[in-house]
Amino acid sequence: MTVPDLGTDRLRLRGLHAADTEAVVRVFADPAMSRYFEADFSDPDQCRASIARRLTYTGPDGTGHWVIERDGTVIGLAHLRPSAELPGDLMEIGYFLDRAHGGQGLATEAAAALLRHGFTALGLPAVWALIHESNVASQNLARRLGFTDVGGGEHYGAPHRVFVALPGTAGQWHHVEVWVPDLARAEASFGWLLGELGWREHQRWPGGVSWKLGTGYLVVEQSPALTGDHHDRCAPGLNHLALHAGPADRLDALVTAARDHGWRALFEDRYPHAGGADHYAAYLENADGFEVELVAESPRVTRPG
Ligand SMILES: CC(C)(COP(=O)(O)OP(=O)(O)OC[C@H]1O[C@@H](n2cnc3c(N)ncnc32)[C@H](O)[C@@H]1OP(=O)(O)O)[C@@H](O)C(=O)NCCC(=O)NCCS
Fold first, then answer.
1. pLDDT by residue (tens digit) across 30-40?
2. Do 6-165 and 175-295 come out as alike in CATH topology?
3. Of all protein residues, whose CA lies closest to atom 30 belonging to ligand 1?
4. Is 286's C-beta closer than 6 angstroms to any atom of ligand 1?
5. pLDDT digits 0-9 by tens, 202-227
6. What is the model's pTM?
7. What is the CATH number of domain 6-165?
């Protein structure tokens, strides 16, 4: 298991090691720490057994178990790992802080660092937390971090609330603006293609139109300030836009239909693997020289012979 060190203003989160065992046993010595768990970790043997289990963790790189340190002393434990309670590989967060250090926002600070790690370094689409119905302190912490309560269920042998956090939009695309020599032609090609992929018209004015999907939108504009009348995708600047296109058979159908909507296929003789044997994609160019790459999910790899 390899987990990175995570630093915060007041804390350091670092990978759990066998040498931390007795320090963690001390953190859990107060029976109130185990109030909402099936096991009583104030029993040193139960606590040691739990730490030993954590030390055998072999999940995805960058996930696992951390100790929370303040000024070099272990004051808590935290984890981010696939949930054994939820279906699939959904990532579940957990945090445990010595009550002697409670009420100062330290657990919130540690959990925030772990959440940030999950969304930025690991690129997780969501982080889940299962919190006992009566564990108000933990539910408050989760809400402070932006988790949403999405329901309840029987987990870890007791009624739990199910919380989920999604990545924020900071750092993501807000919009991309493409200047075009002919708005009608651009709308006929881009508008059709984006509509097929689930985008919806977002803004419209005499010189432009935009389409939105999720939080980002694409603008095409025939600006009066244009300094040229054609796009050269091989000149410095934008070469192509690449979009997810869904399953491979959906992409096949899209490529066929695109011919009637202002697009011609590039590298057609090598479709669908012009980008490599494991990459199932189409490369389309419209009448004004703009290229779009459409990438299928779950590539259907065809091997020679
Ligand atoms: C869940 C647990 C970690 C929460 O501990 P905590 O001390 O309430 O959490 P924090 O360290 O983030 O402190 C939050 C409190 O400090 C206050 N606080 C002070 N300064 C703060 C700051 N800078 N930022 C956030 N909160 C701050 C908050 O208002 C809050 O107090 P409140 O509950 O009276 O409103 C702790 O109760 C625990 O370890 N319980 C046992 C294990 C457990 O149940 N884990 C959760 C499993 S799902």
1. 999 999 999 99
2. no
3. 103
4. no
5. 999 999 999 999 889 999 999 999 99
6. 0.73
7. 3.40.630.30
